[in-house]
Amino acid sequence: MRVRLLIFILKAIAHLPLGVLYLFADVMFFLIYHLARYRRKVVDDNLAACFPEMSGAARAAVRRQFYRNFADYIVETVKLFHISDAEMSRRMVFENVEAIDRLTASGRSVAVYFSHCGNWEWAPSVTLHASSAPDIAYCQVYRPLRDKVFDAVMLAARSRFGSLSLPKATVLRSLVGLARDGKVTVTGFMSDQKPSHGDPTVPLMFLNRPTAFISGTETLAARLRMGAIYWDMHKTSRGHYRIDCRLLADDADALPKGELTRRYAAALQQTITRNPAIWLWTHKRWKIPVTAPAMPL
Asked: Whole-model pTM?
């Protein structure tokens, strides 16, 4: 009942034009940035450690723009509950989607490496651009939220464009099951998060800091002989994004251990350094120190 009520309210809000919703985003920015100062210390510490050569004024500008982007992300995610395919296709553009289509046309499933850049909740709209062949299943891996109501609501939003949400704990089983059903899969992995306890990792020197990168994505992709694509996110203007589909590997199993994770980290670092405000700086990415030697990118 609570889930249905909340979705009803969000759908009602989502009927408002994005121009109106951005007025709410402006208010939200003021509240979380100036009043609540939401995780300001985390953001400041992250930016200072990652960009030591950047002046204090430049980091402050990045911080401010990050919080504006974050407020936009919130209202844009609500908009998922009422947005046409045509408007979404205009606002979230995919370039070089042929790189995905080439792999799936050859019968190879695809692991899409993504990150918390721009509006990642709009990325499942790739189904409006890539091949719609009936034997292709589009999926995304997620970590279930502790709040069951909010988790159900987010799953409803993420299914807006027909993709399947696969819990992280059972993703291998799910993908194997889809393959047995004759499906080629295109699966998004958000591999830039802090590893959970017990996650296998590769230590890399990322943004001037030793960083443990989740390597389970690489292991799964190699086991299933998947191709690998990186989604390079650009925020071109308010409410408009572009994702460049960049090939990382035709066959993940053909690469040395750790190489696919390194390629992803290098590509992600380029995305962030090009526009630092686009990444999720409130995330406590480096909470757990890395003790093993970190390899350069």
From this structure: 0.95
